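INFO batch 0412 | record 1 of 1 | parsing
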Amino acid sequence: MKLRIVLILIVLALAAGVAYRTSFQEGGSDKKGDGGDRALSVKTVPVAVRDFPRVIELPGTLEAAQQVAIVAQVGGTILQQHVQEGDTVRAGQVLFSLDARPAKARMAQSEATLGGARAEIAEAERKLERLNPLMQSNYISRQEFADAQLALEAVRARAGTARAELEEARLDAQYAQMRTPIDGRVGRISVRAGSLVQAGGEPLTTILAPGALDVRASVAQQDWPELASARAQGKVGAEVFFEADRTARAQGELVFVDAQLDAATGTLPIKVRLKESSPAMLSGQGVQVRLLLGVVPGALVVPEAALQHAQQGTYVYVVRDGKAAVQPVKPMRSLDGEYVVDGELAAGEPVLIEIPQRLKAGSKVKLEGARG
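INFO prediction complete | emitting tokens
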């Protein structure tokens, strides 16, 4: 019995000793990891030194390079609409016909007035011819002859007024036939037959010329000096793309810069003409335009993910001698997720793009999945 008890005690003591050793080893392992002797795996990319594009990106709106708003030049009622929205038209083609009867009535009235004035002119000229020899022989006074001359000039003036009124009526009759001045495609039509339109009122429709598109945009006042410098060096190219798709859809060239700053917005209107356009691009569509101003030679380039921000400024973690070091940098410009920075970085030096939670300056690190 005693022997059995002794054996049980020995077994329990051995089990307790094994449990203690296991617990100690596990605890020692955790402390070793927390002590920083183990290097942290980090993802890095090398610092690139290369020419970096200098660009200005702006929101813009597409519009036809040539488009004409069709506005009534005379008031009246639309009798007939000759085209439909989306129709292709040729220069000179009739788009709308207005009621020309009022203009034709004025034409008839002016023609009658002019005919009467011409008859009066003929009579006044004959009278002046009869009076001239009588005045020379002193059979009539000079005053009577001057009165005859004045009457002739007055009737000539009335004839001139009648001619002007007739020409105006003729023009109004012509303007009643509203024609397109250019080849193109009919845009949205805002009126229908029977509508009353006013001279110089809202456009009835817009004719969009086929072919090239323009992009209207505005440059911020602070960006103008850089753009002006680029223009002084030569032509300024451009790329146009949709915000959702950063792939360039068209190439273009800056063709217009307004001569005056918009005081209300602090911007300068510009226009870019596209060399070719994608079928997906339509007049009135919103796009992004990128003005290509040149390059920054030999720039230090890092991905946006490498930049860290603190109250003291912007910095990156760089791997030096197997440890993470903090390197302050100053972002200069960005494009497509990359930044040009100013700082003490060397070409090819690995900078961290994912920061482990326990990382701090001086932590031991090892490169994992480095990308070039």
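INFO post-check: The chain is about 30% helix and 40% strand.
INFO record closed
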